[in-house]
Amino acid sequence: MRKFFTRTIMVATMIALGVSLVGAQAKYAIVFKNTGNPYGEKQMAGFKTGIEEQGFEAILRAPDQPTAEAQIQIIEQLIAQKVASICIVGNDFNALTPVLKKATSQGIKVFSLDSSVAPAARLTHVNQADSVKIGKTLVQAAYDMAGGSGEFAILSATSQASNQNLWIKYMKDELKLDKYKNLKLVKIAYGDDLRDKSVSEAEGLLRSYPNLKVIVAPTTVGIAAAAKVVTDKGLIGKVAITGLGLPSEMASYIENGACPYMFLWNPIDVGYLGAYTATALVSGKITGKVGDKFSAGRLGEYTITKAPDGGTEVLLGPPFKFDPSNIADWKTVY
Ligand code: RAM
Q1: What are the beta bridge partners of residue 67?
Q2: pTM (global) more than 0.90
Q3: Pocket-forming residues, ligand 1, beta carbon under 6 Å
Q4: Which domains can be identified in the chain, with CATH numbers?
């Protein structure tokens, strides 16, 4: 009888242990650039929905400051927690490679989303929109708003952010076309995706370049800061703001004319697509190679393609234009 009980307890303990191991395998983490960014919160919310509707646990993390060092600390903690997967929104293209390789060597499926990390450190990248198209579109907008000639500046996130740096690279490529010979990029400023710093950088641009016609901010934090500065200084109509903005943060600036139009994608969908990429990698349905196919819940089917950086990616879709005709429909959505 005693033997029976001992065995029962042993089996029960093993089952309990087994369940907890499975539980540990079922944790899916996302690490955003930094806290306090409504765009990041929406992206993480989409990831959480996608993970939870598949019956797993989502871990949402972001450091206070948008640095690679701070993300490295978080990744070390996630490795110790034995998460199944890490979805990283990189604060640096290369600096995270050693820690991400360490995670991979321990069986964790690592991929980037929104802001990529080096192909050697990731299985694939979830890209919100075609990077070349974003670069081209933003220069075309600057040209249009400047009336074809004059000075414009870029207000970016951090100088290391790989998504912004890629978009800026493609902006510079577009600017080489003869059509833009009278459009002059005078400065690239960095507001680090921090609200106050972005405001002071925008003010600095206006001080240093009194003839500035357009500020292009390829960051939701930067564009909202620049639009606020132009509004507060009574410069609407003199300096136009465009770039990538959240409709919920930018509606009043599109309505008051500070920002004639801007672009973005649905950040909730980016995170949600990340959730299904994570589970497809962990289940072994995909490995991240070109041609891999998987289904992403309400978003439908996706195929992994070659990324311009030599790695692979999964593309959410085309960017969307927001202007006075449609902003009211979108400002409550994201
Ligand atoms: C900011 C972040 C994010 C970027 C958007 C457009 O919120 O830098 O990574 O994708 O802007």
Answers
A1: none
A2: yes
A3: 33, 37, 39, 114-115, 157, 161, 163, 193, 219-221, 244
A4: 2-128+267-317 (3.40.50.2300), 131-264 (3.40.50.2300)
From 216, 220, 268, give the residue whose CB has the most ligand 1 atoms within 8 Å, as the site to mutate.
220
Residue nearest to atom 4 of ligand 1 (CA): 219
Print pLDDT tens along the chain (334 aa).
444 444 444 444 444 443 434 444 599 999 999 999 999 999 999 999 999 999 999 999 999 999 999 999 999 999 999 999 999 999 999 999 999 999 999 999 999 999 999 999 999 999 999 999 999 999 999 999 999 999 999 999 999 999 999 999 999 999 999 999 999 999 999 999 999 999 999 999 999 999 999 999 999 999 999 999 999 999 999 999 999 999 999 999 999 999 999 999 999 999 999 999 999 999 999 999 999 999 999 999 999 999 999 999 999 999 999 999 999 999 999 9
Q: Which atom of ligand 1 is nearest to the CA of 218?
A: 6
Q: Is the distance from CB of 280 to CB of 260 less than 8 angstroms? A: no
Which residues fall within 8 angstroms of residue 293, CB to CB, at 6 or more apart?
Answer: 286, 301, 302, 303, 304
